[in-house]
Amino acid sequence: MAAIEPALLDKSTTIKMLHDACELEHMLCVQYLYAAATLAQGGDPGITAVRAALTEQWSQQLTRIAVQEMYHLTLANNILIALGAAPLLWRPNFPQPASRYSDINLPSTLTPFDRDTVNRFLCWEKPEPDGWWDAFCVECGRQAHARLNMAIPASQERPYGSIAELYDQIKKAILGHPEWIDRASATRQVTSALIPLTPTLEAITTAEQAARYIDLIVLEGEGVPDWQSNSHFAYFHQIADQLDGLNRAQPDFVPGWPTVENPAYDATNTGGTLITDPAARSVGVAFNELYLLFVDMLTRLFTPDGESAAQRRGLARVITALMPLGIKPLAALLTRLPAGADHPGRYAGPSFELPQPQPTGPPATIDALAGRLLAVAGRCRVLGLTDSGIGAEAQDALATIAARLETLVPLFAPSSVELSA
Fold first, then answer.
1. 259 forms bridges with which residues in the sheet?
2. Where does the chain hold its CATH 1.20.1260.10 domain(s)?
3. Per-residue pLDDT of the chain (421 residues; tens, 9 = 90+)
4. What is residue 108's three-state secondary structure?
5. DSSP one-letter string for 133-149
6. Residue 177 and residue 206: Cα distance in Å, rounded?
7. How far apart are CA 186 and CA 203, in angstroms?
8. Which residues form a coiled coil (predicted)?
9. Which one of 214, 246, 275, 393 has the minimum C-beta count within 10 Å?
10. What are phi and psi of 247, to 5 degrees?
C-alpha cells in the first residue's frame, strides 16, 4: 500500500477523504445498532437471568459505541463545514464490499450478534501500528467475504489501510493548510450548545482544533497509542474474550437472535435479503421512514436556513430523543418478527435503508419534518391497532412507540404543526 503524502493532499482530496470518514462512521454506527438489536433477552428460550445480564451488558456496550460513532460523525461533519464544504449524512445501503473503503479489506454488512460479527467489529477498529491484529484481521476479512459469498478485492495501491491512518492523513493535510479553515462557519456547526455531547464539543475555528478532535476520534475508536483502554477496539476485544470463555463453558449458549443478514424492504436493494412477511414488512417500512426522517433532521441541523435559535434547539432535542424512543425499540421489535416463508426459522431486522441515490434539493423545512414525524407516529398507531398477525405484545409495543413519538412533535418550537393536524 502506498500512502499519499499528506503535504501533497489538496483541499478537494482532503474533503473526499472526509466523505469516506463520514460514511464509515455512519456505516459502523448502524452495524453496531443492528448487532445490539439482535441480542437475546430475558424471556427468550435458553436465556437464564445470568445470561440475560450478560447480553444486556453487551447491548449497552454496543449502544454506547454506536453513540460515540454518531459523535465522531458530528465531528467529521463539523470539519467539513469548517473547510467550506457541505455536510455528508448520507451513505450507501448494505451490504457493501470491502473495496469501497480503501485497503481496510472488510465488507460493511448487517449481521446478528455472534463471534464472527464481533471479530469484524474489532478489525474495523484496529489500531494503526503493527500488532497481532494484522494477521488476525486478514483472516477475519476472508471469513467475512465468504459469509457474504463475495470475492476478496484484488490487491491494489490505495491511500490508507485503517481508519486511524485515514484520519491521520486528514489531520496532517489540515495542519499543513490552516488557511482552509473558515471561521465564519462556526454558527453552522453542531456543538454541545445544541446537543449535550460528551466530551464537550465546540465549533472548529482553527486547524489546531480540528487536529485535536481528530486525535480524539482515533483515541476513542482505536485506542492509539494504548489500545488496552476504553477504546472501541478494547471493548470488542473484551467481548470476544467473554464469548470464547462462554463457548468453552456453555457451548449451547447462542447469544444472538436468528435474524437474516442484511434485511431489505426495498425490492430494488438486490444485495439485501428481502423480507416477505407482510406484518414485518409493514413495521420495516415504518422503521425506514423514521430512520430517513432522523437523517433528514440531522442534515437540517447542519444546514440552518433562517429558522430561529429556538427552532434549531427544538430540532436538536427531537434528534436526541428519537433514537431511544423510536429507532431503537422499533429495531428490537423487528428482530422478533418472522422474515417470511422464504426464510424459515429466521427473523427480520432493521434494514437502515436510505433512498439511492441521495435526493437533491434543499433540506426539508422544520414544519415539514414535524409533519413527517407525526405521520410516522400515526403509522405506528394504526399498526398497533390492526390485527395483522404480529401478536398482542408487538401491537402494544407499537402503540407505546406511537405515543412517545407524538410527545416529540411539540418540541419543534415554535412550530405550526399541531397534534390535531
1. 347
2. 1-257
3. 445 565 558 999 999 999 999 999 999 999 999 999 999 998 888 888 988 999 999 999 999 999 999 999 999 999 999 999 999 999 999 999 887 776 678 899 999 999 999 999 999 999 888 888 889 998 998 898 888 887 766 655 566 788 999 999 999 999 999 999 999 999 999 999 999 888 999 999 999 999 999 999 999 998 877 666 789 999 999 999 999 998 899 988 899 999 999 999 999 988 899 999 999 999 999 999 999 999 999 999 999 988 888 889 999 999 999 999 999 999 999 999 999 999 999 999 999 999 999 888 889 999 999 999 999 999 999 999 988 888 899 999 999 999 999 999 999 865 444 443 3
4. strand
5. HHHHHHHHHHHHHHHHT
6. 10
7. 5
8. none
9. 393
10. -65, -35
Q: Is 341 left (phi over 0), alpha (psi -120 to 50) or beta?
A: alpha
Query: What class, spelled out in words, does domain 260-421 have in CATH?
Result: mainly alpha
Hey, which bits of 228-330 come out as E strands?
263-264, 273-274
Q: DSSP of 370-396, one letter per residue?
A: HHHHHHHHHHHHHHHHS-SSS-HHHHH
Q: What one-letter code names the amino acid at 231?
A: S
Q: Which residues share a beta bridge with 347?
A: 259, 338
- Amino acid identity of residue 71, one-letter, is Y
CA-to-CA separations, 375 to 49, 70, 120, 295, 361, in angstroms, rounded: 39, 25, 37, 16, 22
CATH of 1-257, one of 2.60.40.10, 3.30.420.10, 3.30.2290.10, 1.20.1260.10: 1.20.1260.10
The rounded Cα 276 to chain-centroid distance in angstroms is 25
Instruction: Scan for cell 501533497, then name that residue.
Output: 8
Backbone angles phi, psi at 149, to 5 degrees: 60, 40
Could you tell me the three cell numbers for 157? 495501491
Distance of alpha carbon 419 from alpha carbon 421, whole angstroms: 5
Sequence letter at residue 165: E
In whole angstroms, how far apart are CA 102 and each of 6, 126, 169? 16, 15, 13
Count of positions (residues) in the chain: 421
User: Following CA atoms 125, 326, 200, 180 in sequence, which dihedral angle do they give, to the nearest 10 degrees?
Assistant: 70
| Residue ranges of E strands in 131-242 | none
Q: Pick from 330, 334, 268, 269: which is nearest to 294 by CA?
A: 330
